[in-house]
Records
---
Amino acid sequence: MWEGLEPRRGPIRRSDTSSACPAQSSRPNEPHMILAVDVHYRDTSATVAGVVFAQWDDAQAFASHTVTCDDIANYVPGEFYRRELPCIVQLLDRLAKLDSLKDVAIDCIAIDGYVWLGAEQRPGLGAHLREALHDRVPVVGIAKTCYAGTPAEAEVRRGGSDRPLYVSAAGMALVDARAAVAGMSGSHRIPDLLKQVDRLARGLEEPAAAKSLR
């Protein structure tokens, strides 16, 4: 599923990673799923959680999983991806080895954060994740707080809240990513499945085994 998670060399450019529509899976006969991830940090470790679901408006996850990451990198301002990306890669490696997900193709990954940062649209966590996956999987960033210089077109309001979510994307047109997030299940600002992955990462909920595909 995630062979060769080694970033390619050279700077990340937005033209390298944006396209009008999501990339198609190289395994067309397998169920196509979306993976939402979140990471919760402790003193010297972190828990990365993932929920797998079939459609953006699904109310329930197909499966969920957590991985504990030790020896996490220190936080460096402006280089958050150096701390979080290795955790997400560990989760992807673990999911690839699960028999319950061997027949599933992940066609999009949603992260808690940004793909592109600020008015300059510098590469954020999501852009670095897509690079690590050799641009094979679209990545959608769903951030809860505003990064300085984030353009107004990133804003998505849900549930009647005055506080927007901030959406960015690579491998998917921004208009499609914004529509997908706006249509996610839940009547509040934070979609239900994103609340679930946050609870999983915090240890407030136990992961659930994959449901039957039949």
---
Amino acid sequence: MSASKPNEDRQVIPRWRSFKRTLSTRELHATNLAPRISSMPEVDRLREEYREEPSLYVAADLRAALLANKVFDAEFEELSSYISSSPRVPSLLMQSLQRDAKTQGLEDSELDVGVADTITAAARVDVARLRKKLRLQPHDAISRVDIALSHAILGNVHQASREISIALSIAPDNRFILRSATRFYVHVDDPDQAHWILTQSPRTIHDPWLLSAELSTAYLASGRSGNARIARELLISGRFGAHSLSELASEIATGELQRGSDAKARKFFAQSLVEPTENAVAQAAWASENKITHLNSESLTIDRGYEARAITCAQGGRWEEATEESRKWQFDQPFDLRAAMYGSYYASMGAQDYESAFMMASMGLLTHPGELMLHNNAAFALANLGRTDEARVHLAFLAGADDESLPVFRATEGLVAFREGNEIKGRRDYRSAVEGLLKASRAADAAAAALFWALEESRIGSLLAGETRKLGERLLSAAPVVPETQALLGRLDAVRPSSGHRRAF
């Protein structure tokens, strides 16, 4: 059938970007934490070692530890000057200092410039660069997280996990480290670990950026957080700006929505959008699909607001824009399953941009190789490109599908069969898909399957084209009106049968 997008609940899980990119989002800006929790045993150890016997390499390690804890004070500058003025400073360490000069840290090879032709090629470049840096500065926790990100993009879960663990051991209370690690553990489907690392930091209940992550991971791990009251008190404490509270308010709104308290959810969503993060805007866009909140046009102009704009464009049937925003979303968050699922869905279902659909599904499969719906989406795109042999490679992964997903996969098999010239099997698969979806009370999906069946019958000039279209329209009358099915009807009106075809059942 059509490619499919996820329909599960969305939580305000932290984004994971390189340190340099994260700095530009204001996520790491200082907040008026009271009390300020500072636990830097590694810094203290290196300070003592440096006082007893100053050396170039201890100075480099101490500087890296300060960097990991975002301490950019006179001590940090003094260490930088000492290292750079040393007559025997290694060239790689000097290059690192030069790259750090303007941003306090961590030059990141941009994924959207000509350094590399693809996301994965850029990630490989970053792995090689950061390995060299970590040989000189093994206690640089931020570089550990950045290399873990590149490994995650490449699908190297074991290596990413190792680097995350080391980073947490070096800087267990650092906001960047904790939020990045949280996103990693959710990515590898371990929300319990994601939640646990947040509960171990004394900083979490005092920092709205960490507390929002604690609430969201607690929901994934066990269904509720024990810090809900503290979170609400933080919102009204007057100690934090609207931007720092944006994701916390958004996650509280999501909890109210999941408990059926729509009025309270609207109130907290409104607070989350006063000075929002793009993640909070994306959460509001997700909620707007259920008419819970409304996004104004100003919110959608936010920097890196790709996910929110993709969802909103699709709601309005602007499929090419939705596809382009999804492509940017996946570029920004290459390991995000939702980006791959939504992007391949929008590109296939609405824009009929099957090359983009296949590209986004393939990128998703690199980091989620066992995700059956992505295999389905890849097969759907390939069949529409006439590459049925490749489509069947992806269909082979769907053999063990559960009862809920099986009808969707059956429809895709029907498409592949039609494109291979096997109309009898194609009709059998589409009929099975429609019946299975109706049995599961999924009227809208059943209507879409019937309309895709009608498209195939119309394409070959079959006498069954009208009958299958009527079936789809009848099913549509009992289903919610959505832009996807309206787009399918438009495609049916425009279809022209291939030459030489005029077949009946």
---
Amino acid sequence: MSLSPAETAKPSASGDRIWKDSAIAIALFALTILTRLPFHTQFPEGDEGHFAMAVREFDVSRNQPQMPGMFIIFIWMARFFNLFIDDPTLSLVAVNIVASGVTVAALFLLGNAWYNRRVGWSVSLLALTSPLFWYYGETAFSHALEFCWVVLIYLAAYYTGLGDRRALFSLAILMGLAGGIRPSTPFFLLPLALVAVFFGWRRSRKTDSQNSFTFFQVILAFGVGWLAVALWFVPLIASAGGWQSYWELVQNWLPVHTTRQDADSLGEVFDNVMVLMKAYFRVVGLAIIPMFWMLVRDRTAIGYLIRRDWKIQSSFAALIPGLLYFSLVHLRRKPQTFTIMPAVLIMGGLTMVWWGDRLSKYHRQAWAIVTAAIVGLNGLFFLFGPPGMPTAGELRRFNLDVGERIEFVRDRFPPETTVVLTRDYYYRLMDLYFQNYQLPDLSHDLDEDAIVLPPHIRTLVLFDDRIFSEPGQAENFQTMNMPSDRPIRYLNWLPEWQVKLSENGAILMRRQ
């Protein structure tokens, strides 16, 4: 007889030994670390460069990191690893690799605590091989750490809802610190925290447990949470030169940020929804099959769980604020959805167990087969999928491309007389790897107003293929093939010549 989702959601027997669950969690942590080490990025891409520069010197006025600058805990963690690695990019990656391990282990404990060990296995292994989560756990962005922090908040919220006083204060601290990792996290998860505190306080009033909490302790926990906010917010403000300076930076940043990114038409809302759906599919992968199957075949059981299971209700409390915001207001990149994706992963793992139970009449080990098939195929997609997707191939392509260009330019062009120019997206590479070359800030500062390069400069190197790619923008440039046979464009000139440069191209002209 197949089981319904409501039956699937029965918790583990109380006789399950804690040490065994802990051993499984530790093994999953170690397995996650091992799967991440071979594929990580070696160089920053886009905004990752701002984080890498912030590891060296935190200064929001110089976009280190990018505004609003509320990534300071991520930077502090990276600085710890940088003491041993001495590479700001790899230090940021190290934070994300460790965070990925903690995430997978915590999801096993959460699934096991919420439902049973099979759900714990399915959810954790789904996260282990989630293509999008795996990919960003290999980069220097803050998204993997945010994903980890959200899962820890879920775990603390669950035990807070059971009336555990220690979990209440843990939840307050985690919520307070969350804004120092990514500013949107505490706002989207506030409904979850409030629901958990309410259920826990109501349960505590009905029990005499030593671990229960009172209303006064709830107020005290809120105070502890605000102290946790102060731990990162005060240093952030101080680094900007005080509140007035920071507020001016925010006011200058907000109009550009909202005008460029916010949805103000149905077409843009539709675009946001499509990005959201792509992120959803790339997080759960083939687990979308049992999720869709359950939605079609067992809507009654879904309704039962939503009405009766407060864990599912709390998942929706964590899901809906971010879902509405990403759909109707602002969604730029798929990993920005990581605030809500842990809830989606939990539902994916739950439906994998449900689907396995439905198929158990055909095979006793149907759940294990379903889990292994989905997890295995998701992992194979990451390992062997094409570049341009969240895959190991894309990470390899980027590392080989950027690494070869950096080494080639350094070996062949003297820094004393050379300017290296790239498009704005990669300008932090100049700060990190070409800081001893001439005018390293030029890639960022270049605009439509032309400048003349100083007389001592004799060479202009175009680092990437997309800078000055239009006809007429790079006349008189020569090419030199790298070992991969890809070209690097450069321009040499004699002392009697000079180069006028703007975002519209380079013009070689005789010196007056």
